[in-house]
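lol ok so funny story. i was supposed to be doing the assay writeup but got distracted and ended up predicting the structure for this chain instead. priorities right. anyway since i did it might as well share w the group, maybe its usefull for someone
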Amino acid sequence: MKRLITAALFASVLPAFAQGPITWEHDLASATARAKREHKQIFMDIYTDWCGWCTKMRNETFPTPEAQAALRDFVPLSVNTQLKDGTPTANKPLEKQFGVQGFPSLYILDENGKTVRSLASYLPPKEFAEFLKGTLDTSKMD
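and the output, tada:
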């Protein structure tokens, strides 16, 4: 019975990793070039080192099979705009460019880098996958 359960769990996780790990971009220019080549939208995560919710998303949401499967349809982009002490990084201008209101800031961009939809919030795996698919009901969020 344990082998059957283990096999079932493995089979449910395997499709998310069958194509290998997700390759994240770390600057908008590279992500945009790749999105044009692959004809995909961009998922952009704008975070800071001092943001606990940002760390939680990177450690507990993005690595899950559900999130990984949903990310396969996008060019994933993760940009850090501030260090732990608040010192700006080279990506700091993206906060103004995209009108960041809080962290983490999550964006779906078209292949030219224009915002399709955005949300400033931590999302657990199921809701994150729904956000990527455009099916997340944000009216019920605080």
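DSSP finds six helices and four strands in the chain. Residues 2-17 form the longest helix (16 residues).
back to the writeup now i swear
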